[in-house]
Amino acid sequence: VPDPLLTPAALSLSPAFLAIVIAGVALSVLGMSLVGVLADRRLALRTRRFEEIISQLSLARQQVEASQKELEEQRLRLDTAMNHMGEGLCMFDAEKRLVVCNDRYAKMYRLPPELLLPGAAHRAIITHRIANGILKGETSDSAATQVLATLNALPADEISSRVDELADGRLICVTRQPMPGGGWVATHRDVTEQRRSEAKITYMAQHDALTDLPNRVLLREWMEQALSGARCGGPSLAGLMLDLDRFKDVNDTLGHPAGDALLKSVAARLRRCVGETTLVARLGGDEFAVIDYVSDPVPEAGLLAEKIRKALSVPIDLGHHRVTTTTSIGIAIAPRDGTDSDEVLRSADLALYSAKSAGRGSFRFFEPELDRLLQARRGLERDMRSALANGEFELHYQPFIHVASGETCGFEALLRWHHPQHGMVSPVQFIPLAEETGLIVPLGEWVLRTACAEAAKWPDDL
Predict the structure, then answer these.
(1) By three-state DSSP, how is residue 69 classified?
(2) What is the percentage of the chain residues whose pLDDT exceeds 90?
(3) Could you tell me the pTM of the whole model?
(4) Does 235 sit behind a cis peptide bond, omega within 30 degrees of 0 on the bond before it?
């Protein structure tokens, strides 16, 4: 039986060989381990890179979502702001296609949904306004063509503004602002109330608040236009200036409400006396003016003045009182008595003064001599104001004689004015002037004081 502990010679290996084999196996194992380690590291590196890419993509997605959310919020804010504007807003590109518009614009012109979409043609929107009678005027195709031609002729590089009137009476101010790349943005603002307020302010500035008649401002404007025609060979103008006689007595005795009622009644009667081409104005206080076209000036103006005089002489019912008043009228003919409004009114005023001086309730035509008389009157008034301070007035005394006894029983103080240049001025000249200007009050006080002081020095038997 062979001994198992003994190896046959043929199967015996040398230690060196075994060492090499074992070293090779070890190296193989180490190599495989190294390859595994390197593979694991490469995998880990790729995994980390992949995770970093995923993280970056996630961050980018979050940033995109945040940007989209911010853009959406901005769009909502912009839409809210646009749709809460008091004005209509629209934007068109260089091809005249709608870019955007707000609700106010859509409602203002009652635009259907298809005309609110981006890309809607400007021509279609304008045609819709005209064909549906939204704009005031015709609704035909030719009307739309004409409006479009007018709009297309607007300068593309300048701001333009216009006012469109809608069929319902509203006024829309359209302001177009060009954009750098072509096209434009336009605002559509309802200016109806603004224009009404402006018209009301203008009306109030040109009309009397009490009688609703034109005032001096509108009178001058109207006269300048009429006079420009008269100077070029058109019809003449008759300018009548009138005031109410003793109007102050009505105010003083019945009160200002009665005076206002009288003035309104006079204004109504004056309107009924004239035609549509005649202007009736209140100049202030109880002064009125009537301006009319005349072909035969003197007879026609005289007939009009007489008609007015008779109409105003009829008693006026003021409620609890009936007032009878008269009027004095001065007449000037243009361009004979003046070539501008101021000159004509001044001539009529001079004629009015002449009428009042001659007797109330009458009318007078302007005469060149009246100007000289007025200048003399103004100079007399100016001199009289300084005469009292300069001691130019003096008193003369006329005795009262008792017829039966022949004795002096009193004296009448007579006021005289010794003018330094003109000598003695008749009381007939300066007393009426003093009454008109109010100088009669201080003048009367001076007369009373002076007469009493001088009488105190007389002998007792006087």
Answers:
(1) helix
(2) 54
(3) 0.63
(4) no
